[in-house]
Amino acid sequence: MNRRRFLSRAGIVTILVVGGGVWYANDEGAFSQGKGPAFQPWMDWDQPQTGILALVRAGILAASPHNSQPWLFRVKDNEIGVLADTRRNTGGLDPFLRELHISIGCAIENMCVAAPTAGYAASVQVAGGVLRLHSDTSTPQLIATVRCTPASLPFDPLYAMVPHRHTNRTPYELRALPASFQQDLLSIPQSLPDTKLFLFTADDQRSKIMDLVIQCDQTVYSDKAAIEGTAQWERVFRWKDVEQHQDGITLTNYGMSTHAASLLYSLPIPVAKAVMARMSKGSYSKQLTASPMFGIIAVRDRYLVDQCLQAGRLWERAHLLATAQGIAARPINEAIELIDIENAEGRPRVTEPKLAALTDDATWQPTFMFRMGYAAKIAPASPRRGLSRVLL
Question: Across-strand partners of 141?
Fold first, then answer.
């Protein structure tokens, strides 16, 4: 019997020494990444089904801030009302709900990608409006209506990528991305007239972006309201929270191995917090350094609802396109979040000019930033709420 099999049968696979104590973690039963109801939507998304629910199944697999999934759907005849569940926000990190509305755009793009495969031509009607400082409300807000007309259309080639698109929070390889891929990305805004995409690959550009993002990250996460707003979506201490809520970011979503995550979920919370603090120190900076390409999605007015939706559709499609090419992606939005905080709290507006210096075009307002590259590790699926939780 080899050592690994012996330890597994003995029930002890890891010994951790921390804070003067010795803790043992069992390899079985601590948690089951990728299994259970919280992950079933990734497996059921293209199962045979009736009518336009196929679009909703694709929509719930879209990107959202901290995997908050702030969407609800009302299906009636041949149309789907897409509503914002504003209770599912990130608090002080997103005071205008700008990022929340961007995620609604991500869901709409997935729905439009899925429509031809389900036998429909999809058209989107946006409710419109201007974003204001968020005030608590429990009433879902209608953001857009997706109308579905039976039609025989060519399938969208990115449809098959929907269940494989996952945010990858690990370091990437400093290997240049294909020029053809970059051109494909830059062509996406042609169908989204109020958007523009800026890509940065030169060393000096990347260095400036890295410095800015790190500075903004430190400022944003020293803001009490921002910390409190995101803490509710951290599913990193109790696996039963993942199973219960079916949302948020897990340890493996942060790039931790299944083995290490199993250990931390088994530890007392104070010990797990101490270990995580030590493991995460400097990790974000390393991730940024190992990123061959950064991008900025900009709009004419970041606080117009329809332009938030366009930005979300652009990001979702860009991420699906990257997934098809085996390229990893992750948002890095701290600089734009800091703009929101400065505007909401009446602070000096110092961040906007720094971003304008990067794009060299102040007529476009950055609303989403990201990094892309080849990753050594495949990103795992995040927990998702199924149809029973999102259908009105």
Answer: 84
CA 87 vs. chain centroid, Å, equals: 18
Q: Compute the chain's Rg from CA coordinates.
A: 21
Distance CA 289, CA 72 (A): 37
66 domain-assigned: yes
Mean pLDDT in residue range 239-259:
92
CA distance 121 to 104: 19
Whether the CB-CB separation of 235 and 245 falls below 8 Å is answered with: yes
pLDDT in tens, 92-102: 999 999 999 99
Cα dihedral 116/117/118/121 (nearest 10): 0
Convert the pLDDT of each residue in 55-84 to its tens digit: 999 999 999 999 999 999 999 989 999 999
CA distance 362 to 352: 9
Mean pLDDT confidence for 278-293 = 86
Same domain for 158 and 94, yes or no, is yes
Structural domain including 345 reads 164-230+286-375
Note whether residue 271 is domain-resident: no
**pTM, entire model:** 0.91
State the greatest distance between any 2 C-alpha atoms of the chain, in Å, as a whole number. Answer: 67
* Domain count across the chain: 2
Amino acid identity of 149? T
pLDDT at 203: 96
d(CA 24, CA 43): 33
In a domain, 199, yes or no: yes
Whether residue 308 is contained in a domain is answered as: yes
* Residue 197, beta-bridge partner list: 297
Is residue 45 very low, low, confident or very high in pLDDT (cuts 50, 70, 90)? confident
CATH (domain of 63): 3.40.109.10
The four Cα atoms 331, 89, 216, 317 give a dihedral, to 10 degrees, of 20
Q: Region 158-173: what's the mean pLDDT?
A: 96
Burial 239-251 (b: 16+ CB within 10 A, else e): bebbbebbbbbbb
